[in-house]
Write a structure and sequence with these properties.
It is built from nine helices and no strands. The protein is mainly alpha-helical.
């Protein structure tokens, strides 16, 4: 076997391993019966793998892993946009929406139409839900995943756990709350700052 054939076989093995990894992660996050934390971790892993394999990262160089993570965080905004509109798409339906978006970005990349990847990617993600709103709304109603459906109207609890957009929204809310300092914490920081300034003044 020549060297080129060995390299190609190695790449094929790597691609197969990544596909298996993505499939396992999808199995976890797409099942509502799994714990919220395991679903979110698996979703994050799945997103990274989709980004890694579907898009061209040659432009990122040594920053590839960091850029993929930044794009994963941006992609979560798409999920939050669905949640804000009350569209609780989950499982394979949500996965298809995300991969369709990534494939569209990849197609544009291949055509050489992306001068500034970061700006283009963020713009594509922020526009996606609005640009496809009618189609997504119809799909959501057909699947019975709109928050205004009969189950919610009757005040009944679904048998399964929350949809992934709900979990993403809860995580985002908790992160935002964690960044909010209480008045007590602000006072403590201000006292510490003043004490440090006073100590600095004495030293001078």
């Amino acid at each position: 076997m020549n060297v080129l054939a060995q390299v190609l076989d190695g790449r094929e093995d790597d691609r197969h391993a990544v596909q298996l990894d993505a499939a396992k992660a999808a199995e976890v996050w797409q099942l509502r019966g799994n714990t919220p934390e395991s679903r979110l971790l698996a979703f994050d892993r799945w997103l990274r793998l989709q980004l890694e394999t579907r898009l061209d990262w040659t432009w990122a160089g040594a920053q590839r892993a960091r850029r993929i993570e930044q794009c994963r965080i941006v992609l979560e905004q798409l999920v939050l946009d669905l949640w804000r509109r009350g569209w609780m798409l989950d499982g394979k339906v949500l996965a298809r929406r995300i991969t369709d978006l990534l494939d569209a970005v990849a197609s544009y990349q291949r055509k050489g139409g992306v001068a500034d990847f970061w700006a283009y990617f963020r713009s594509s993600v922020s526009r996606y839900v609005g640009a496809n709103a009618e189609e997504i709304q119809a799909e959501s109603r057909r699947l019975g995943t709109h928050v205004g459906n009969v189950i919610a109207a009757l005040g009944l609890q679904p048998q399964e756990g929350p949809a992934l957009p709900e979990l993403a929204a809860q995580r985002a809310s908790e992160v935002a709350d964690a960044k909010q300092l209480t008045l007590r914490e602000k006072l403590a920081r201000e006292r510490a700052r003043k004490a440090a300034n006073a100590a600095q003044g004495e030293l001078l």
